[in-house]
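re the bet — no i am not wrong, look at it urself. input seq straight from the record:
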Amino acid sequence: MSVREKDDPELYAKIQEQNLLRQYDLLSNCIEIGLKKGIEFFDKYTLWALNYAAVSNISQFGGRYREEPIYVGNHFPPHFRDVPNQMDRFFSVVHENWAILDHPTVLPAYALWRLNWIHPFVEGNGRTARAACYYLICLKQGRLLPGKKIVPERIRENRKPYYAALQAADRAWDQGHFDVSVLADYLAGLLRDQLAEQATAS
């Protein structure tokens, strides 16, 4: 069962917003478990659950990797047969560099960019990537961060610099380099704003 946007745009938008709230609740649980269990808990099952929550009643294939081609503007994500391997490599980079890259937003930026680049799901890739990014931000900080408006919501509010930062990482990758510094700086600013707003509210 799924609702198509073209058939009922108002209901579709309502379901999307309700799904996002449920995804954030689930994300909080995942972060709490990750804080107890460590970075190894960040795995495909975590992402599958977060994706399923984001696209329930919108996509019939939520919570599993795509098995079909997908196109995103000018970006052509990897062939669907390559998705499982690409995702294994993605998790390997995060796990193996967790204790090495101690910068608070570099690995979250990598996750945000790489998941958008791989586009492993049929639907809800951006929402899942932003949730994964925030998961890693909180684990780097060692706590479930306070704030009425968290980093994923701040990205949604102002997408232009977000897209520009993703494109900068894409250009570096196309030239044979790994560089998510623009995205990491962008996330650091959003994180500062989240924490500063919470401090003011307190």
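see?? The two ends are 44 Å apart (CA to CA). told u. also The chain has a mean pLDDT of 93. so pay up
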